[in-house]
Write a structure and sequence with these properties.
Family: Belongs to the peptidase C1 family.
Distance between the termini: 63 Å
CATH architecture of the largest domain: Alpha-Beta Complex
Radius of gyration: 21 Å
CATH topology of the largest domain: Cathepsin B, Chain A
Keywords: Disulfide bond, Signal, Zymogen
Number of strands: 10
Number of helices: 10
Strand content: 5-15%
Structural class: alpha+beta
Helix content: 25-40%
Shape: globular
Pfam families: Inhibitor_I29, Peptidase_C1
GO molecular function: cysteine-type peptidase activity
Largest sheet: 7 strands, mixed
CATH superfamily of the largest domain: Cysteine proteinases
Number of domains: 2
CATH class of the largest domain: Alpha Beta
GO biological process, one term: proteolysis
Order of helices and strands: HHHEHEEHHHHEHEHEEEEE
Amino acid sequence: MLFCLSYLLLGVLAGGYTVAEVKEKFDAYKKRFGHDFGDDDDYRMAVFDDNLRYIDIENAKGLSYTLKIGPFAHLTNAEFKETMFGKSSRFSSQRPLGTAANMEEFSGSTEELPKSVNYVAKGWVTGVKDQTNCGSCWAFSATGALEGLHKNVSGELVSLSEEELIDCSRDWQLESFRYVEDHGLGAEKDYPYTSICPNFSPGCIPPTFPCTRNAKKDVIKSHSISHINMKPKSKSSLLAAVARIGPVSVALDGMSEAFQHYGKGVLDSGCSLATNHGVLAVGYDMGTDKPYYLVKNSWGTGWGEKGYIKIAIDDSAEGVCGILLDPSYPIPA
């Protein structure tokens, strides 16, 4: 109660908003994203106000991207990291490096490649999904690449089961591909997503379910695919893979405040090179003033540009946010 009273006595909050204005925005935010904070409502409103101020300050800098009030505006950055990347996360950037047999590097020139590629527009990408705070980004990244491969091979776009990978596979996109190589993979409709934590549970470990796969319903059959672990730090290789193969599983830093509150535009700064989040490269555009990779996230359509983010294409070895460090993709066997 003392916190609430001291907060209200401020009258006009930092950033120029009155308490009434912040409360109006906060109430609209809760309604949009279905949040109910109970006894923590006043604290969450204070955090929301801090994030609102941060977003306004960053957006006033004239950057190549803008931030917005998204699904994590009630969390401090520390809480966001713990909630989305904490104890529940099975993602690891320490994946085995590819061997000479499966590591691929593009030796040509990027001038040989199309100026732009967009598999969303091409119909190879399923709708944006929401992992909630399960820490299962790696599974969504893997199914996205497999969905693109299946569309390319069969002509059918089928939403595949992340839950099967979570229950039956190990960590990482690469391990997921190996699982599918050996066992196949079913559709989401036959093995729906259930690894959901409560609305706000920092570091939540979701329930562990037994593997209940049914091989008779597999969309991708066992021994029908293989995978390529791409050479890291190769911009031309990632561009070529996206252009010539399809959607590619990549890893990047998703923990920054810029990533937490990303709204639109081309993200070219505000993140580190620590790869902690699995996503899906579904296109690129080299024909704009600010070239970018089009990346599909798994945090719902309320985040970013309807669930997508544009990551700048630059000449650094690691790529912006480390996007060039861990690319991989499935191929027909």
